[in-house]
Write a structure and sequence with these properties.
about 375 residues, alpha+beta, Nucleotidyltransferase, domain 5, 6-stranded mixed β-sheet, 5-stranded antiparallel β-sheet, 18 strands, elongated
């Protein structure tokens, strides 16, 4: 077995990982195997990145790799990792919940090595980012795809993990240094890549952490049919700096963000909408006025001009300015028709002065965008 240790220089996460872990107690981890099925394959490498704080030197992220120089070395690699990992509490990985961790658990049990992964807090970068693949306009959620999206870095490594399997088998036979370098390089760049793509977790924060609306203004424009349209533009202070510029649109709402600054554009509906009363049995419907009134004030209306209201006719109409919402965040809510699933709330003068309400509304819009096609997740291979 070989153990290779390196300083990663100035490379460090561009995301405040202290939001969910203690850096000095954290391991970024990636494994290399000769197959996907644990019973019929070998583990030949484990690579980690960790935060080193030496007494006499500046803190730095370092990498450590354990390479099995033959098939029998598998147990030595596992033992070395188990001994090293006991000093840590957090494991960060890419799709490790699906592959790396179950694979290692099985191998540890096979060799009776005492390392319980339930004692660690795991952070799976893939699982956190993949629900927002559509929001990021990514063709897939492979690690290299996310790396290119964030940094446009070109890897020196040109192989996939599957392509390296045959190279490892050849390496076991002849211990060729060039093949060893290819094996180590692929794993090293996967580790480095994780330190880079962890920055994409700032996208998750858009949907899970509160944000601040710093400015709201109305904008008026003409669409392609020369119709007068209006919208509100909300300037945002984002909870975490985005790693690159991001733009997305859904349901006629548009988001653009760069760093800690963002903008949301939301259309204003100008016109008539209906407010439906829930207790329709207590109302009459007046067909000529096309409105409903409570029975307690309907005694003056001739019986020929009123009828018992139904759920579909128990409403009042109002012409005003409205904003869309995808849940009853603000009440009262209005609709175009009873069957219509689109909800609106009135953009009143009072609402315009409530900054906290705009904070909630901006979060609501982004939640809608994040939920759109949320489960359209591709393979990570």
């Amino acid at each position: 077995m070989k153990c290779i240790q390196k300083s990663m220089g100035i490379l460090s996460p561009r995301y405040p990982i202290e939001n969910f872990c203690v850096p000095r107690q954290t391991l970024f981890i990636d494994i290399e195997t000769t197959g996907l099925y644990v019973r019929s394959s070998n583990l030949y490498m484990i690579g980690c990145a960790y935060f080193d704080e030496p007494e006499d030197n500046p803190p730095v992220w370092r990498s450590i790799q354990w390479l099995a120089t033959n098939y029998e070395d598998e147990v030595n690699v596992l033992n070395a990792f188990a001994s090293f990992a006991k000093a840590f509490r957090y494991l960060i990985h890419f799709n490790g919940n699906q592959f790396d961790i179950p694979y290692l658990q099985h191998k540890m049990q096979q060799y009776n090595i005492n390392l319980n992964f339930d004692e660690y807090e795991g952070i799976d970068i893939y699982r956190r980012i993949s629900p927002y693949k559509s929001f990021l306009k990514l063709p897939n959620c492979k690690q290299k795809t996310i790396e290119n999206f964030i940094t446009a870095t070109v890897r020196e490594d040109a192989y996939t993990g599957g392509e390296l399997i045959d190279i490892y088998h050849e390496y076991v036979l002849n211990h060729d240094e060039a093949k060893e370098r290819l094996l180590l390089l692929h794993n090293e760049e996967d580790i480095k890549g994780m330190l880079e793509i962890v920055a994409a977790l700032a996208v998750c924060d858009l949907f899970h952490l509160p944000m601040k609306v710093t400015k709201v203004q109305a904008n008026y424009y003409k669409d392609i049919n020369q119709r007068q349209c209006s919208e509100i533009i909300m300037n945002l202070k984002l909870p975490t700096a985005l790693p690159t510029e991001i733009s997305y649109g859904a349901n006629d709402c548009y988001f653009n963000g760069c760093g800690t600054e963002g903008k949301l554009r939301v259309p204003i509906y100008e016109g008539e909408l209906k407010y439906f009363y829930s207790n329709y049995k207590d109302y009459y419907y007046l067909p000529k006025e096309d409105t409903a009134i409570h029975k307690s004030v309907a005694s003056f209306v001739d019986k020929d001009y009123r009828k018992q209201a139904t759920a579909r006719t128990c409403y009042t109409r109002k012409v005003s300015s409205y904003l869309p919402q995808w849940d009853a965040l603000f009440t009262p809510f209005f609709k175009k028709d009873y069957e219509d699933k689109d909800l609106y709330f009135e953009l009143t003068d009072e609402f315009k002065t409530q900054r906290e309400s705009f904070n909630l509304y901006a979060h609501h819009i982004l939640e809608m965008m994040g939920a759109k096609h949320k489960f359209d997740i591709n393979s990570t291979e």
